[in-house]
Amino acid sequence: METVLTISEISRRSGVASSALRFYEERGLIASERAGSGHRRFQRSVLRRIAFIVFAQRIGLTLEEIGEELAKLPVDRTPTRRDWSRLSGKWLKRIDERIAEMQRLREGLTNCIGCGCLSFDHCRFANPEDSIGRKGPGPRYWM
After folding, report:
1. Could you tell me if 113 and 139 are in contact, meaning their C-beta atoms sit under 8 angstroms apart?
2. Residues 113, 126: contact at Cβ < 8 Å?
């Protein structure tokens, strides 16, 4: 039988606040059992699911998307490395897109961000007569 842990033990071990763990449970991303006292008890394997949730959030998945991915895992056994690999392998394109976006953001810190403001000397060349502004509001080069 797998070891059960309290919510505070899971929080300490995962680095995720107890309030977030309760929220994840409400959303169906993780599950607990109730002890006779009514306190939550989690299987140790929930730590893997929490790590997955944290990682998936960091690469930009919504909680809904995370739930859809977690639903693909087996319920009758602890997920294997192959199970996790199958899920995360599809994220390479998304990670590459985030890297490219971050590189554009980094360049925007020192270069024109395409805002249409014409306040930089450079904008007279990159955005003559505010041509970018006619394409819509905001930093158009990034959209």
Report:
1. yes
2. no
pLDDT tens track for 66-100 = 999 889 888 767 788 888 888 777 788 888 888 99
79/66 Cα distance (integer angstroms)? 15
Is the pTM for the entire model greater than 0.70? no
Q: SS3 of 131, please?
A: coil
Task: Give me 69's structure tokens.
Answer: 């991915």
The residues pairing with 5 across neighbouring beta strands, listed in sequence order, are 42
Q: Which amino acid is at 76?
A: D
Q: What is the mean pLDDT of the chain?
A: 81
- Residue 61 φ/ψ region, left for φ over 0, alpha for ψ in the -120 to 50 degree band, beta for the rest: beta
| Nearest partner of 72 among 56, 86, 90, 91, judged by Cα | 86
Residues shown for the chain? 143
